[in-house]
Amino acid sequence: MDFGQVIGELIGGNGVLLALAIFIILCVMLGVRIVPQSEKHVVERFGRLRAVLGPGINFIVPFLDRVAHKISILERQLPNALQDAITADNVLVKVETSVFYRITEPEKTVYRIRDVDGAIATTVAGIVRSEIGKMELDQVQSNRSELIGKVREQVAAMVDDWGIEVTRAEVLDVNLDEATRAAMLQQLNAERARRAQVTEAEGKKRSVELAADADLYAAEQRAKARRISADAEAYATQVVAVAIKENGIEAAQYQVALKQVEALTAVGQGAGKQTVIVPAQALEAFGDAFKMLKGRA
User: Fold this and answer.
1) CA distances from 187 to 132, 180, 191 (A)
2) Predicted confidence (pLDDT) per residue in 267-279, tens digit
3) Which positions ≥6 away from 71 have C-beta within 8 Å?
4) DSSP helix/strand/coil, 269
5) Could you tell me which residues are beta bridge partners of residue 84?
6) What's the pLDDT tens digit per position in 243-262?
7) What distance in Å separates the CA atoms of residue 139 and residue 156, rounded to the nearest whole number?
């Protein structure tokens, strides 16, 4: 008996068991599905949606069910898109946008939309044009966060029927054509010149105000000095009046003589060589003053 005959007898005797074992192994291989954490599998039965398999070990009916689609649930980024838009004040701008999304319900994505990236890009472009058309150029430049919020909200609402979640929608840049840039630069320079002139005018005004305040302060100080001098003069006059009242006419004569002596002394103290003319009454004033001083002594 050769080796071929032995193999034939073994297969012939256990053929049914062997076929059954192979069938069971095949059923296990077809019925058990291990889904990665980053995916979800869409199962169909006779071309109709049967179930959506999540991450881990899943069981399906062999030969009846099949995995028709393997959908990644990782976050995706659309290529940056650049589209034209016209603002409310008729300025043409080029807006660069970026969108991040992920698929949350694969059964909707598979059976309701064919080109997910193209559909989202078209939706974002339409929403951006619509929102920028409601705003003026200055608002687009200054209220970028408000524009992004509106775009994100509307995009999320429109793609919800596709089983998609928009995680981020950003307006990266708003570009202008050369003519608009030149006009804005000219306007900016004019505004800077205006601010410089206003600042210079305010500086001059402040300088005039400070000079006026300084003059007023100087006038007030001179007035105070005059008032002090007047008070001192009045006090001196009062003292002389009291002396005259107490000592009679001699006190008045003494004061007059003393003033004449002081005046002559001041004239004699002048710088350089000079001739001093002394009036005749001056000698009498000196004599009267010495007599009064002698009388007092």
Assistant:
1) 22, 10, 6
2) 666 555 455 555 5
3) 39, 40, 41, 42, 103, 106, 109, 110
4) coil
5) 94
6) 666 665 666 666 666 666 66
7) 23
